Hints:
This protein is an all-alpha fold. The protein has helices spanning 2-16, 34-41, 47-54, 64-80. The site of zinc ion has 6 residues, from α3.
Amino acid sequence: MATIRRHCEDFIRTRLAPANPPNDGRQTPMRGHPVFIAQHACACCCRDCLAKWWRVPRGVAIPAERQQGIVDFLMAWIERENVLYETERFC
Length: 91
Ligand SMILES: [Zn+2]
């Protein structure tokens, strides 16, 4: 789980946190890592979903403490759910 959390922090920092993340809307694959699945299930997969579901403002970098909150939320979901089944996309 420590490894998954580290990956989760990296994904959020590099793929979601920048003001204009590369490939926004397509940066989170549908499978391949439990964190990806959690991101889709929790609407934390792209800035559109974060803006729509979590009211994270677009076009500005996500502060470190907010990133940590997202990571905590995703990790709680992963620990609670069986992440092997397919989940619905929000975008
Ligand atoms: Zn999305």
